[in-house]
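Lab notebook, design round three. We kept the backbone fixed and only want residue identities now. Task for the bench partner: fill in a sequence for the structure below.
Input structure tokens:
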């Protein structure tokens, strides 16, 4: 059983160091938020636009592949349903990406008309 005498650090000195560290961290976080606050909305919009483009591409590919696989499974046309619907999914995905890119370049923010 430990008695508390001996090599235990004094709680008051450790507590003051923690308080000092927390104050410095708060000041650093406030300075970083102030510095990054100006550029954050633009980078956030670009991040959302990139995610939307990625979702369109993956949705077109996976949706076309799933629908094509289902057509092949029930109609027995393997692999032509899968290939045809996958090609259609790619075409639709690239068309949507092209529309998003045009809307973003014209300042509409990538929203549909």
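Proposed sequence:
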């Amino acid at each position: 059983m430990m008695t508390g005498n001996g090599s235990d650090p004094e709680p008051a000195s450790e507590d003051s160091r923690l308080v000092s560290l927390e104050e410095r961290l708060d000041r650093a976080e406030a300075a970083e938020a102030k510095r990054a606050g100006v550029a954050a909305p633009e980078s956030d919009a670009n991040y959302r636009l990139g995610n939307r483009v990625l979702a369109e591409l993956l949705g077109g590919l996976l949706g076309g592949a799933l629908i094509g696989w289902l057509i092949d499974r029930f109609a027995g046309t393997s692999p032509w349903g899968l290939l045809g619907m996958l090609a259609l999914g790619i075409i639709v995905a690239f068309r949507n990406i092209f529309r998003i890119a045009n809307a973003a370049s014209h300042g509409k923010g990538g929203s549909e008309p």
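Keep this in mind before ordering anything: Residues 40-75 form the longest helix (36 residues).
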